[in-house]
Amino acid sequence: MKYKCVVCEKEYENSGRCSICGSVLEEVTENLKTPVLVAKDNPGIRRIEERCIKCGRCKFICQNQVGVKYDLLKAKEAVCLYCGQCVLNCPVASLTVNYSYKKISDYLNDTEKVMVAFTAPAVRVALGEEFGVEGNVEGKMVKALKELGFDYVLDTTFGADLTIMEEASELLERLKKKENLPQFTSCCPAWVRYLEIYHPNLINNLSTCKSPISMQGAIIKSYFSEMLEIPKENIVAVAITPCTSKKYEITLPNNRDTDFVVTTSELAMMIREKELDFANLEEAEFDSIMRRGSGGGVIFGNSGGVMEACIRNLYHLITGKDPDKNLLRFKEVRGYKNVKEATIKIEDYELNLLIIHGIVNIEDVLQKIENNEVHYDFIEVMNCPGGCVGGGGQPLGVVSKQQETAEKRIALLYEEDSDLKIRSCYQNQDIIDLYKSYLGEPLSKKSLELLHTKYVDRSDILGEEAP
Ligand code: SF4
Ligand code: SF4
Ligand code: SF4
Could you tell me the pTM of the whole model? Predict the structure, then answer.
């Protein structure tokens, strides 16, 4: 008879405890599989050991869809990107989101505090699934947040527009100087962490732009606080996102302006706890300051959306003209395929573009980039299936219908984009006003200070396996 530690995967001849991590050893049978290892201080997810049926599905997803591989006997700690894909795939809820919504309740009851919620586009096309309401539930979601006690409810598409103002300008600078190409998108913290751990030699290729929530958090604690004359210490900024990895992002030194991240599934819990009848709620509108973003900001939730929004702005930066209808519906970068490629010529610039969801799908490309075997100018990487619409903090659904569900959410965001009059960030009057009165211009000293970040080599986590 053989025994195995389901955490470290070390095998033993006798029963007892693992000499590495102290877990009780399991008898090896044909069906025994190992779960992912979740550290106690994991900011994104939790694992409840007693519920686990050792089906191994989480580990399969983590290794084969996300792309996390490491040797636990050599690594310094469990390697995790905090993406929550294992949570969506665990059949018995042994894995869950690391809930933080309870902590917010105290602040919601504190009259000194000004509670500001800002919601990512992928939330409004998924929240209704929790309550049997189809479609985009923006109005009901805003109303629910007001009923929960938030003083201001803002749209993170504003932060997405800001990201694109900066990221397209940064790309143009790099194209002119022919340096640090390809530029990688940086709005997915799981992807950023992957690069910092597995390919730290490429971190200069990451855009230095903070993600939309971290840009919006920074603007809320500066511009918004000054305009409304509310001391920033009294503001509690809560990002409502489809993403568990954002819970990690806001712990990083440059991203501390957002106080809490609450996922779509947590927001549904808050609504249930308050006993709100979501399906029959009236509709309400986002608050008028930093009211909303362009269509480009809306499609950030879809794989290919950041690329499309960025190309719309880049086209305007290079030509001074508005993008034509082909660029407002950039077919080649849309759709559920894991890997999409496109080329585009804008005056003298001919760009090779690559869009990937599922980090595992970029690994070969990264190795080719390191060996100068391929040339790309701009690469968008999102960890989750279909982009943030398939994030680990979205409602739990039927595993076999994950693609179908993500495709419905994707279609809803493209529909919202095409219905909007303002399709590109540089046309958004609130963004124009923010630059005019506060930031100056993209990549200005103030913009760099508030909206950009730095990356660090985290490869030592892998121990002897470090690249
Ligand atoms: S959160 Fe993501 S990276 Fe971490 S164990 Fe789960 S699937 Fe793997
Ligand atoms: S998916 Fe859930 S039940 Fe299956 S091994 Fe992982 S934690 Fe355990
Ligand atoms: S794709 Fe979106 S939801 Fe998924 S980890 Fe990245 S930022 Fe979070």
Answer: 0.93
